[in-house]
What does this fold into?
Amino acid sequence: MLVWLLQSQRQVKIERLAATLPLPIQQNSRRHLQRFLNSKGLSVVRLWFPIIEEIVSRLFKPQSQLIITLDRTSWKDNNILMVSVIYQKRALPIFWCLLDKEGCSNLQEQQKVLRPVIRLLKHYQLIIIGDREFHGVELGSWLHRQGLKFVFRQKKDTTFREKRQKFQPLHTISISPGIRKFYHQVNLTQNQGFGRCNLVVDWKRKYRGQQEPEPWYLSTNLPDVSTAVKIYPQRFGIEAMFKDCKTGGYNLEGSQANPDRLVRLILLIALAMTSAWLKGQKIQFSRQQSYVCRPCEQNRTRKRHSAFWIGLYGYNWIVSLNECQELVLEMMASVRNKQAFSHQGLMAMLLIQQPL
It folds into this structure.
């Protein structure tokens, strides 16, 4: 029921959810929703892990390669570290925790969110990717000891050293747009006690009038430059997911819940968001998306709407149509030359409403 509320209200303010909770009780009683969000039964491991494990098993074969992205988002006093799996340029949340501080995460916090995911997805080949926040050699070294692959972007002032050479900052590497370089088994930073890793330097060429301002510096234990360069851009799927959690979907930044409730609200968002994405995928597969969003336009290279958007607003379209059903039927009866099209639309509604 709460997932249904999130889909219809598209926000997580507890006061708003309580006001629209469809239970025949007084409003003050509905506000006890706060108590429900304090329930220990709303556990990510107990409730969400079996669901996301089943979804992953349907999307990927055992022993196949999974791209796992590690990222952090913050607003006001909230600071969330999240691990997600990438599928078709889309990030699906797996595990998250609320940091009790501002700013970047440290190695212990990163290990805290990664360990449960590694155990959960032990039957797959994981590649962990992250942006410059996770540039430290400690995380890469720990993952390497776990037998996992990684690709992390490095800051340009990070120092590196080839064998029998002196340390130098990454930005001193001579490179121009359209060029890639691969350095095998270098020392990254001057910290002692860590092994070597591979270094990829890639500066994208100018594309459609857009030029990357600087190259990517990537530390990795992958064996070649093309694989690392192909995998790292998939990290940006988590940026779209964070947008869906916030202004693009459920307005998470509007929540004033305490830390414990916030973690559980994110669990409800994960359920609602993944449900909307799966529904959008089904709508696209059945080719009914033209009833929900504008069709593809000529000379437009990117899709206007994602599967998540189609699933979320497809659901709201059906709810609105059901609320006005009598008026809709009267209008359909009065315009006879459009009845065939209206009948097709109703059939599309039935297809969209079918269970996942």
Q: What stands out?
A: The chain has two domains: 44-243, 287-353.
